[in-house]
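Q: Hi! First time doing this. I have a protein sequence and I read that you can turn it into a structure. Is that right? Here it is:
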Amino acid sequence: MNQGSAVNGAAGSSTASSTVAVVVLAGGSGLRVGHDRNKAYLPLGTRTAVGMSLQTMATATMPGLRRLVLVVRTDDRELAERTLDEELPRPSVPVELVVGGSTRHGSERQALRCLERDIHAGAVDLVLIHDAARPLCSPALVRALVRAAAENGGAVPGLVADDLVAVDDDETLVPLVGTHVRVQTPQVFAAGPLLEAYRRAADEGFDGTDTSSCVERYSSLDVVHVAGEPQNFKITYPHDVHIANELARRNHH
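A: Yes, that's right. Below is the predicted 3D structure, encoded as structure tokens:
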């Protein structure tokens, strides 16, 4: 992953003219946060994580937004519909519900199948994929990622991790050498190469940990790193819910 602006052959389109499809993944559970419902639908301030994520991604990608897809679990479909009615009653672009797969990669693949016709037709230049469990991402970061992806082909946010260690053969902790990054979402990529990467991954039975892992393995896109945000953390454990709730209240969400 690079931190620069070398233009890839599939990229180079102007940010202002780029058309974007937004995919928000909400297929997790609430087990580790101590709840019996999907953590994406937990209340934060006056809204939910999924509502906040959809609103931020949609607003920040206007006026280029063409498609807005929410990937859900089968059991959450009615909950998702109620949440959309309450929190996004009049979206500028209709929210499309897609039932995800059994893994994150499978859910991304389902979303891309939904977008496939528009991608082939050239109606979508970029695809943005975001975890609903990261509801505090700022619009400024989204715009920076879209701009970087339009110029280079792909863009991923992350924070430098200086507190990582490895375990040696004798179980001794050894500091890792070099720069390591904690990758976040949203991740934004040129639509055509992204779709082709997931097609190739399906042919080989590859199941990636996140979108960038599949893109880097099956495409030649120049994926650049954009500085992430501390508040753009993923809600995973009970204390994350408390922190996210306090931040959402302060930001009047």
